[in-house]
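Quick one - inputs below.
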Amino acid sequence: MKLIRNFVIIAHIDHGKSTLADRMLEITATVATRQMKPQYLDQMELERERGITIKMTPVRMTYDLNGVSYELNLIDTPGHSDFGYEVSRALTAVEGAVLLVDGTEGLQAQTIANYEAAKKAGLKIIGCINKIDLNPPGIENVAEELASLLGVNIKDVYRVSAKTGEGVKELMEGIIHHTPSPKIGSGKQALIFDSVYNDHKGIIAYVRVFKGWFNMKDVAKLVGVGRQFIIKEVGIFTPEPKPVDCLTEGDIGYIATGIKDPGVLRIGDTIGDNLLQGYILPNPVVFASIYPEEGGDYDDLKSAFNKLRLMDSSLSLAPDSSEVLGRGFKVGFLGRLHFEIVIARLEREFGISVVTSFPSVAYKIFTKKGEAIIESPKDFPVDYIKAEEPIVLLKIMTPKEYLGRVMSLRDFFRMSGEETASFEDRIIITAKMPLAELISDFDDKLKSVSLGYASFSYELFGYAPAKLTKLEVVLANENVPGLTRIVYKEDAQRIARKLAEDLKNLLPRTLFVQAIQIKDSGKILAREDIPAMKKDVTGHLYGGDRSRKVKLWEKQKKGKKKLKERSKVTIAPEVFKELLKK
Ligand SMILES: Nc1nc2c(ncn2[C@@H]2O[C@H](COP(=O)(O)OP(=O)(O)OP(=O)(O)O)[C@@H](O)[C@H]2O)c(=O)[nH]1
Ligand SMILES: [Mg+2]
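Output:
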């Protein structure tokens, strides 16, 4: 019987999870020193560029303790709340969790949220303070807070520097000592917690084997969907995929299914003979309509989305179409950053450029015909009887001294019903807030008033009545459906002016002066002129991805499908973020 320990590293964003994983990879010689690079497990190009983890990454290590060899399966998880679904799935594949806290920052909202999720999953949780090389002055307080959260003695909180490696061996031995070994039982069950598409091997399922064993060439079954297949390959993560003879109970690894239709496999399904409890799909919070930049690329976009969804099971997709933009998809995201990342992945990994609409929350609208959920602003009816908007339950965690400054955001972001509770030296504020406010720039403003010390987590709470109106953008007398926005009636005038000005600076210039008008039910609320193009000065005016804009502009110059192209404005996701700022 192998000695196995399966664990995740969980923490608030940037508290050092992936760097801690680096040291573990080094200590166990899983990755050769000359191949080592910072945050080795962040292998996606976008992860390296942005310095954040987006996907969970499993890796198998071997640790020898007192002459006994242990198989350690670690899963590094992302910290940003938009990728929380990755964390929740990783938790179901393991028995233990290292809850890491940056000693210079202390407990953050995501620390608490992660702790609660790990506890609910029944995991053994080990508390650990990171960045001790910086000699954080408040480290004793942080240790006390963490011990109090976990209900353990302060001596049981580990202290490490993921940078220098100090304390990491002790932590690893602690993990071996405290994490329960996997339970065994009869039967055959492997839980699919992630997947990826491979042109040769078909869908590759990332699994945690709970019971039995899985060999190459065996006949196996996707229990939930009732589909049989012959196992093409089984393997482990080193972290690169490496074929092995057999996966057995307790192991984390992969099973290549040979199935080529990406729609067949469901994350949370079981390979084996009996269904394990799967996953509840997360609720998307931000929606955007996405169309191929070139109408004919619809099938490519569809195929890309199907493959991307295997790697990112939190995406929700529904067909959408628009007269101007053609066929596309209504896509649900777990947040604004998730939206940005998905668009970037479509472009990088699948070579597809898209036109996206203004990201929006989903509104509940009551008309004479009945009730409807509107996810795309262009579908928002003008003659509604009543409108409701989604509300979140927000938990802000802040050191006591910033409470006043955090509360100064209350009216600006329409918070209500706040209650406070203290936790050691911190205050936890619970409040309700419209989701639409949360996806504006609440995160940036909270960070800036609290000098980075306050953080938040949230969950959808329900719907509440709101006075809403639809702002439409008209460019050179053509409606641009992708830029339609739903806003509060009382803010319409102000937002219309800001939008007209922002668009004036953002949209590519053409040979003629073009008027931008922002209309509310046909009434013009704001108007600006985009000056005609002068040679050499256009380049720096483009927002977002320049080459795409240039391509678009070239087309306009040729005068082909002129009006249609004008109504098909490409705006990069990062620029939407600017436009959404309050
Ligand atoms: N001084 C010091 N810096 C550290 C330590 N651990 C991590 N860092 C730095 O903290 C930053 C974030 O580290 P990451 O390992 O990417 O953090 P993470 O928790 O994986 O971040 P996400 O996955 O995006 O949530 C990087 O700049 C690291 O170099 C440490 O022990 N000491
Ligand atoms: Mg990371």
